[in-house]
Amino acid sequence: MGLLAGVTVLWAFSFSLIGVYLAGQVDSYFSVLMRIGLATLVFLPFLRPSLLRGGQRLALMGLGAVQLGVMYIFFYQSFLLLSVPEVLLFTIFTPLYIALLDDALFGRFTPFYLLTASLAVLGAAVIRFQGLDSGFWTGFLVVQGANLCFALGQVGYRRLSANLPDSLPRHSVFAWFYLGALVVAVPAFALLGNAAGLPTSGVQWGVLLWLGLAASGLGYFLWNLGATRVDAGALAIMNNLLIPAGLLVNLVIWNRDADLLRLVVGGAIIVGSLALNEWWLKRRSLSPA
Has the keyword Transmembrane helix been applied to this entry (predicted)? Predict the structure, then answer.
């Protein structure tokens, strides 16, 4: 849980940085390529190919292609179709996808996870719902594509990691994850990118460096590692804890308007769903087999 909380703080800055310095100013496909390319460079020196079999390497690359490559393309495109509040609102369904996909991949059904994930969705909705403009359904579907990719990548990594030895140094194989994402990002920029939309200021280049090295490089490694150390319910809830964290950063640093009452109430619901999930886990562990 500590890893997920730490990455939540790290990623809380990303939403505002993208919205303030990149969205509508830097080509989205170039931003995706830069973030993934820099993240790859972080872990490539640690790569030890012999630690994984061929099928495992392909699986890890496939997870990177989906969770990072395809997800980023969906996510960045959504800002061209929706307002920022609408994008944030529509990301609240990710916990439900995680709860359902985790049960499907691990061959079980846990109704309680749906309850706690639904509470996390409710809390995020309280924070972000500000009414919707007409003609937003295409954007809604694009955001759901990003949500599904992110959820599938997290759950898929949990499933893959469960079949790997505990002694395996995860940082020595995680470059395969980013190489898989590059397989998506490189042709996407080559075919759809706009060379005229490259960064034009040192600030924009600096933001991309931070997002690539820290948010994408360090962040996704630690997040996926943390995902293997918690249950599906906690993972689902932590996905929506990013919303109040991101709003707090936006309010404190950029002084953007925020409804503090909604922030407090919605955040309390999300934290409450996490506490409920932890209580249920402890109660289940104490129950006789």
Answer: yes
